[in-house]
Design a protein that fits this description.
The chain has 603 residues and is an alpha+beta fold. Helices cover 31% and strands 28% of the residues. The protein has 2 domains: 242 residues, Carbamate kinase (3-Layer(aba) Sandwich), CATH 3.40.1160; 328 residues, VC0802-like (2-Layer Sandwich), CATH 3.30.2130.10. The strands form 5 sheets. It has an 8-stranded mixed beta sheet, sandwiched between helices. A 6-stranded antiparallel beta sheet has the order 14-15-13-16-18-17. Strands 20, 21, 22, 23 and 24 form a 5-stranded antiparallel beta sheet that branches. Strand 17 and strand 18 form a beta hairpin. It binds aspartic acid (ASP) and magnesium ion.
Length: 603
């Protein structure tokens, strides 16, 4: 007999009729010979209504009382679901998080799961009962038995954590969409349903997928190797499978307090090509990377930093064997990249760095935890390591450094993040056979761009900037450090740019203005009218031309790129806000992601 965890979201249990329909489905699963643990959300928009009630009393409710209030939503749906099952003749019992023993930190409104007691669950399963567990809630450690919640959308996390604790065969997340789509169907009607996606890809698509699947749930599934499926409550279609790698054996204690960083990665064999002062207009990146792709040169990191005046710097890394080839292509195209059409205007300057290493910290735990990048930069600064390029994605921060600093950098980072300095390894990504280079495309319109011009170029500056932001609780999304070094009053300087949530931009700006005032030569630039478009796919590793295709799609629509960052499986561009949707549509089309039929998604 196999054990299956099934989770039903708010819409799926939004009315008594729906609860009855869902109960039938659960009943069928039992009839097919399975043991079933069910996790439900609060009915419909209950949680929002409860938040509304609190807001009528105070705009600053105590987090403890909010947890007390919000946890009631799920208590209603578990009782009703259990009754509906009993009505079908299926023995069932409902349990709150506390009754199960879902132990969490006592961090109200955002608790992480520490441990799940399984004795009572096992007993009821033995009795042949379906257990209906309240999602999104737990009980704090300590004597006070405080009710905690996991954060909005947290019942996905409850379900996957239960599946891990019970070593379930599979965790099924039932929702009102048919699975995970290649992009947001409200913006791109021809978005297609994916049959599968890797957990790594899903995490990089957090801004797209978070509404369908809580990133923390994906993290647990990946860490414990739980087979995860996202599917519709109303059809028998197979939905989308989220594929995890074979997990390393891992204790079930501190289930969710997985470290913010779970790997320090090194690639000691990289070389860098930078093009300085390329014109800041649509089509330049497309032209450059189009040439590179035509020569079948596979690029790894790509960054484009904020521009000074009318020019940009673009840099990329390649494995050392292909450096000469990459350099030749860059040199050949540089004369065509002039700031204006007059032949006297300076052409782009090509810089090559032969002995660099790429080091990265990776981990889903950095989503929503400010300060991880800052800690990395501070660690490197303390070790006296100067950071050259910086490029970030949702779950990774990559830096290039001088090759001779490698050992020191790795040692320091492993110490700081509590990673055993096991044999240094290259990033590993789950590959599914025939993985497409691009699996999905996302648009994030909630970010604002922040540039700091003329930051003194010595170790510790990036650390200072991002520690200050982290101290304000500000999460930084993209981070880029420019290539160009400018001497100002005798001090070499570089520009650093990043994106933060629009809601944080005012605080971020004033925080940084105070800092740069001390340097005397720097300035802070803010642009809130930006959008971030990203492509994600594990299949892009070792597949030249993905960046070129993305940039070409943007160029075809005359969309200018402000910033570029990448990880091994993701490329993100900051574009003008008004071009965001066109950019998303164009890229989705360029990678042939459109489906045959329109996927119906409720509003
Ligand atoms: N009911 C909670 C919420 O709306 C938890 C969940 O549905 O996942 O955030
Ligand atoms: Mg949800």
């Amino acid at each position: 007999m196999s054990l299956i965890v099934q989770k039903f979201g708010g819409t799926s249990v939004g009315s008594v009729e729906r609860i009855q329909t869902v109960a039938q489905r659960i009943y069928k699963t039992v009839q097919a010979g399975n043991q079933v643990v069910v996790v439900v959300s609060a009915m419909g928009k209950t949680t929002d209504s409860l938040v509304g009630l609190a807001q009528e009393i105070t705009s600053t409710p105590s987090k403890r009382e909010m947890d007390m209030l919000l946890s009631t939503g799920e208590q209603v749906s578990i009782a009703l679901m259990s009754m509906a099952l009993q009505e079908l003749g299926q023995p069932a019992i409902s349990l709150t998080g506390a009754q199960v023993g879902i132990m969490t930190e006592t961090a109200h409104s955002r608790a992480r799961i520490l441990q799940i007691k399984t004795e009572r669950l096992q007993r009821h399963l033995q009795e042949g009962k379906v257990i209906v567990v309240a999602g999104f809630q737990g009980i704090g450690e300590g004597e006070d038995l405080e009710i905690t919640t996991l954060g909005r959308g947290g019942s996905d996390t409850s379900a996957v954590a239960l599946a891990a604790a019970l070593q379930a065969k599979q965790c099924e997340i039932y929702t009102d969409v048919p699975g995970i789509l290649t992009t947001d169907p409200r913006l791109v009607p021809e978005a297609r349903l994916m049959t599968e996606i890797t957990a790594d890809e899903m995490l990089e698509l957090a801004s797209l997928g978070a509404k369908v699947l809580h990133p923390r749930a994906v993290e647990i599934a990946r860490n414990y190797g739980i087979p995860l499926v996202v599917l519709s409550s109303w059809t028998d279609d197979p939905g989308t499978r989220v594929i995890s790698p074979m997990p390393k054996p891992r204790s079930l204690d501190n289930l969710e307090i997985a470290k913010a960083v779970d790997a320090v990665e090194l690639d000691g064999d990289q070389a860098k090509v930078a093009l300085l002062r390329v014109p800041d207009r649509p089509g330049i990146a497309a032209r450059l990377f189009g040439e590179i792709a035509r020569h079948e040169v596979d690029v790894d990191l790509i960054i484009q930093s904020i521009h000074e005046g009318n020019s940009n710097d673009i840099a990329f890394t390649v494995v050392k064997e292909v450096l000469n080839h990459a350099e030749a292509v860059a040199e050949a195209i540089a004369p065509a990249l002039r700031l204006d059409s007059s032949p006297s205007s300076n052409e782009a300057e090509v810089l090559v760095e032969r002995n660099i290493a790429k080091i990265a910290i990776a981990g889903a735990g950095m989503i929503g935890r400010p300060g991880i990048a800052a800690t990395m930069f501070a660690t490197l600064a303390d070790a006296g390591v100067n950071i050259d390029m910086i490029s970030t994605s949702e779950v990774k921060v990559s830096c290039t450094i001088a090759k001779e600093d490698c050992d020191r950098a790795i040692q320091a980072l492993c110490n700081t993040f509590g990673i055993e300095s096991s044999p240094l390894h290259l990033p590993s990504h789950t590959q599914i056979e025939n993985s497409p280079p691009v699996r999905g495309v996302a648009l994030d319109r909630s970010q604002a761009q922040l540039g700091i011009r003329h930051v003194p170029d010595h170790p510790g500056m990036a650390a200072k900037i991002f520690t200050l932001l982290a101290d304000q609780g500000i999460s930084v999304d993209m981070i880029i450090q420019s290539q160009r070094c400018r001497i100002i009053n005798g001090t070499p300087t570089r520009d650093i740019a990043c994106t933060v949530a629009q809601a944080d931009i005012t605080t971020a700006r004033s925080t940084l203005e105070n800092l740069v005032a001390q340097w005397g030569m720097s300035e802070v630039l803010v642009n809130t009218a930006v959008a971030k478009v990203s492509v994600v796919g594990a299949g892009m590793i070792g597949h030249p031309g993905v960046a070129a295709k993305m940039f070409a799609a943007l160029a075809d629509h005359s969309i200018n790129i402000h910033m570029i960052t990448t990880s091994e499986i993701k490329i993100s561009c900051i574009v003008p806000e008004e071009d965001g949707v066109t950019a998303l549509q164009a890229i989705h089309k360029a990678f042939n992601l459109a489906g045959q039929e329109q996927v119906k998604v409720p509003v």
